[in-house]
Amino acid sequence: MTIELILFFLLAAIAVVSAMGMLLSKNAVHSALFLVLNFATVAFFFLFLGAPFIAMVQVTVYAGAIMVLFLFVIMLLGAELLRQPSAILPWQPPLTILLGVLFVGVVWLYVLNAGPGLGLAALPPAFTTVEAAREFGSPPAVGQTLFRDYVLAFEITSLLLLVGMIGAVVLTRDEKKH
Q1: Max Cα separation, the chain?
Q2: Is the pTM value of this prediction over 0.85?
């Protein structure tokens, strides 16, 4: 069994367990943090596939911006204040520590074994040169494709996020009594 296969199975276990932790958690903030770990694990899968740009987009967009929006809505709705002593599950703190240590260990093993091409997997069979592989997923190429071919979907997504945030504010505002 190669080191890549071992790292893959460790990351797959972390991804599945963090997704289950997110679903089974009774605290909304803990669920959001489990989801951040899941996003980071998926980003690491992209690194294994030789797509560092997509991995960084995964971290910045999903684990960064979207999770900040989720946490903002959770805090705005006051969901974290609903925590009662019975809502604290005894398996959550050890599971969180175990998953965090496993993830850091996998990242450490990957960095030790990546060698000089840190973060780059082998070229997919469709690419014959390193330059062709770099141009395929480069930020300018992805940006041109996104804003040329998928501009409507991009704008609809931004509109949906804006409507969700406005809806959260409207749902939680207090009516002033005159």
Answers
A1: 72
A2: no
